[in-house]
Request: fold
Amino acid sequence: MSADVRQVADGTYLVHGGHTNWVILTDGDAATLVDTGYPGDRRALLDSLAAVGSSPEAVAAVLVTHAHNDHLGSAEYLRAAHGTPVLLHEAEVPHARRDFLQQVSVGTVLRNAWRPGVLPWMVHVLRTGGTEQHPVTAPAAFPADGALDLPGRPVPVHTPGHTDGHCVYHLPDAGVVISGDALVSGHALSRTEGPQLLPDLFHHDRAGAVASLDVLATLEGDVLLPGHGPVHRGPVKDAADLARERAF
Reply:
């Protein structure tokens, strides 16, 4: 699979991988990588870095929205091969180590196999290593509150629910919110287009995920970069409000 790299703002790129997105923030050839796709997306991930004039060696840090397999796929590879720090919310650090797992079980997916789109999605998940575990050996919590001293100056914002330590990343100067799985614009198992929560089976705490939409609604921006689906343009508050309406 080749990388589908879309520049959405100055130095900001949304990359569509195998049903999952990641984001590259650049400053010269240096980069911040937000999420890493499935394990099977590694070639596309490396190609996407080259496409924006960067390289694995130039990645200052991997920021993780949450430690599900389709976002964590190459984080440990980059840490082990290139010494890249892997940073995430303190509540997500043990999840990244796989001290526990807050992810939909194979049994739950199989019980939903009758739903439209589930079987093709399951095949894709298996082909891209989505059931493999690639724990991060030495994940680290953010070193301080506020903007991180990394390309793009992303500001982590805790949005628990999908997992306990889920974070979105706000780029105030660019008017961009990298929303991970707290707010998406599409998914293979959804018949809805535009701002929405993921289907219920994917959330560790659905009520918490709904509540975190209120946090997202406070973030100034008009470009939403979700973990699944295309870029969404328009006030982030409106997107969060629409997702909340659709959740009930």
User: Anything to note?
Assistant: Residues 206-216 form the longest helix (11 residues). Helices lie at 42-51, 69-72, 75-82, 93-97, 106-111, 118-127, 206-216, 236-246. The chain has one domain: 4-246. The mean pLDDT is 93.
